[in-house]
Write a structure and sequence with these properties.
The chain is an all-alpha fold. It has eleven helices and two strands. It folds into two domains: about 140 residues, Human Immunodeficiency Virus Type 1 Capsid Protein, CATH 1.10.375.10; about 90 residues, Retrovirus capsid C-terminal domain (Non-ribosomal Peptide Synthetase Peptidyl Carrier Protein, Chain A). This is Retroviral nucleocapsid Gag protein p24 C-terminal domain-containing protein.
């Protein structure tokens, strides 16, 4: 995903050249569908989930977000409090990079916090930012914003409810896994702890039918083994029930022709055939 032709290598002039006509860089807005996908993932899985992180990475990963786009996108990601925290994190990150400038050889030489944040009076519009910002400035502010999103998300994330999620009697095991994993992904648990916590919660918080199935799971099985084992048993359970229903359903007695359930008719005899069956 690219915002600036020259930075995204789509055939425009290189940063700093400016100029008119065909050499002028033009503004291309963020794809709204990409932002909508982030918002939906936040609603469904939580702001700190792996899916949200991946989607944000796909939008910001090109290092080519203009300050205008950064603000517009983050207004949809964060509510009021989150936006306040994000802006401060973003600004602090930009200031740290500017503090590293030691002379005219540095790629951020001559830049300012106002330029990086999109508040310079000469760069208020996205087109002005596209024309006036240098490639390294765009990269710097994009990376600073991405780090700011991560920091702000950790601050404002709602407490995880993974410890209270239970599998309902009508819920499939894979649906239960999806709900529980989404909650754990959005929690503040260390990455290395999420797998073991998920496995333990699946065992402890599943319904009674699943617990019966898990009793036959071989010792030492991993999480993938557990999911495959339960899914397989859930698949065959309706088939087994149907077979049992068929066997015990009413059938005609060969001797008295009365309907009965297998084992209930005293007159029932196994049929014999006078003519051998070839």
């Amino acid at each position: 995903m690219r915002r600036l032709g020259s930075i995204g290598h789509t055939g425009f002039s290189s940063p700093g050249g400016g100029g008119a006509g065909g050499n002028q860089r033009t503004y291309s807005p963020v794809n709204p569908k990409d932002v909508q996908a982030i918002v939906k993932a936040i609603t469904d899985r939580g702001i700190n989930s792996a899916m949200v992180s991946t989607l944000i990475g796909s939008v910001f990963g090109g290092d080519d977000m203009l300050p205008f786009d950064i603000k517009q996108t983050c207004r949809l990601i964060f509510d009021g409090a989150g936006m306040i925290v994000f802006k401060q994190e973003w600004e602090d990150n930009c200031a740290k990079q500017l503090a590293l400038v030691t002379g005219p050889d540095h790629p951020l030489y001559g830049s300012s916090l106002q330029r990086l944040m999109g508040t310079d009076p000469t760069m208020i519009t996205p087109q002005a930012q596209a024309e006036g910002l240098r490639a390294h400035e765009v990269m710097t502010t994009t990376r600073a914003a991405r780090e700011g999103i991560h920091s702000a998300s950790m601050v404002i994330a709602k407490p995880s409810s993974w410890s209270t999620i239970k599998q309902s009697e009508s819920e499939s095991f894979t649906q239960f896994v999806d709900r529980l994993q989404a909650s754990i992904d959005s929690s503040a648990l260390p990455s290395e702890a999420k797998g073991p916590v998920l496995a333990e919660c699946l065992r402890q918080q599943c319904n009674s039918a699943t617990k019966d199935i898990l009793r036959s799971l071989p010792p030492g099985s991993n999480l993938a083994d557990m999911i495959r084992h339960v899914a397989k048993e859930e698949h065959f359970a309706p088939i087994q029930a149907a077979v049992c229903t068929t066997i015990t359903s009413e059938m005609a007695c060969f001797k008295c022709s009365q309907a009965f359930k297998l084992g209930e008719c005293a007159n029932y005899q196994t049929p014999t055939f006078s003519t051998p069956i070839n």
